[in-house]
Amino acid sequence: MIIIAMIPARYSASRFPGKLMKDLGGKTVILRTYEAALNTNLFDEVYVVTDSEIIKENISNAGGKVIMSTKKHECGSDRIAEAVENIDTDIVINVQGDEPFIDKVSLSKLIDVFKQDTYKRIDLASLKVEITNKEDIENPNNVKVITDVDNLAIYFSRSVIPYHRDQNIHVKYYKHKGVYAFRKQALLDFYKTPMTPLEASEKIEAIRYQEIGKKIKMVETAVEAVGIDTPEDLEKAKKHLNL
Q1: What predicted TM-score, i.e. pTM, was given to this entire model?
Q2: Are the beta carbons of 3 and 41 closer than 8 angstroms?
Q3: DSSP labels for 21-39?
Q4: CA-CA to 31 of 20 to 30 Å: which in 40, 68, 88, 154?
Q5: Gyration radius of the chain's alpha carbons
Q6: CB of 110 within 8 A of CB of 93?
């Protein structure tokens, strides 16, 4: 089984433009993410996929592998799918470019889903983390996920799911972490399908996979990633780096 990591990297970001090229302890955020992915030793190859010459130069100068996007893309899955179309691989892991402190244990669990899937019934694997704070549960920026008894995703939503109508019933809430592991074919099928209605409504790409019949296995993790979405997050990351 050939397993590769793809790190989609856009230079522009609405909340923190150019964040991937910001300095984090003497290296850029994207370079630290790339090196962290390499150092897990989980992958046969690691690539940065970008539309930015600046990011390409940064990774190339450090000896890294870069694939340039030739089209504009709405989401990371589309950017990765274009890149892997002509690459020989079985499993593709989407590593977030703004999360330089990679959780190797969680990535290993995603890979194990496919190693144990003898009959190739699972198309994707992704991560979920339990949330208990009322603000986190109600925050539409946190995508919630509900699953069946086999931990296959039933639905993703920015709304509160499940709705807690009966207060006598204990309910757990899970946030979807946007780290995916795909079978290559599932990724290509997604890429060839226009944005679906529910995906367009919620602005959640995982829903398109569900709308075209793909099975998504959710893996629970207790690790909250140190993502860099704001200048304040970058300062936190610098402190984390020095721990």
Answers
A1: 0.90
A2: no
A3: GSEETTEEHHHHHHHHHHH
A4: 88
A5: 18
A6: yes
Q: How would you write 197-217 as a 3-class SS string?
A: HHHHHHCCHHHHHHHCCCCEE
Q: Which two tokens stand for residue 115?
A: 């190693």
Give the separation between CA 164 and CA 161, rounded to whole angstroms: 8
Q: Which two tokens stand for residue 162?
A: 């499940």
| Pairing of β 124-131 and β 173-183 | antiparallel
Is-contact 228 99, C-beta < 8 A? yes
Q: Please answer whether residues 97 and 33 qualify as being in contact, where contact means their C-beta atoms are separated by less than 8 angstroms.
A: yes
- Residue 66: partners with Cβ closer than 8 Å, 6 or more residues away: 47, 48, 49, 50, 55, 56, 59, 60
Task: For residue 47, give the H/E element and its range.
Answer: strand 45-50
pLDDT tens digits, the chain, 243 residues: what are they?
A: 999 999 999 888 777 889 999 999 999 999 999 999 999 999 999 999 999 999 999 999 999 999 998 888 778 788 899 999 999 999 999 998 998 998 899 999 999 999 999 999 999 999 999 999 999 999 998 999 999 999 999 999 999 999 999 999 999 999 999 889 999 999 999 999 999 999 999 999 999 999 999 999 999 998 877 789 889 999 999 998 885
Report residue 241 as tokens.
């780096």
Q: How do the residues of the chain divide into helix, strand and coil, expressed in percent and rounded to 5?
A: 35, 25, 40
- Enumerate the H helices of the chain as residue ranges: 29-39, 53-61, 76-84, 104-115, 134-138, 184-192, 197-202, 205-211, 231-241
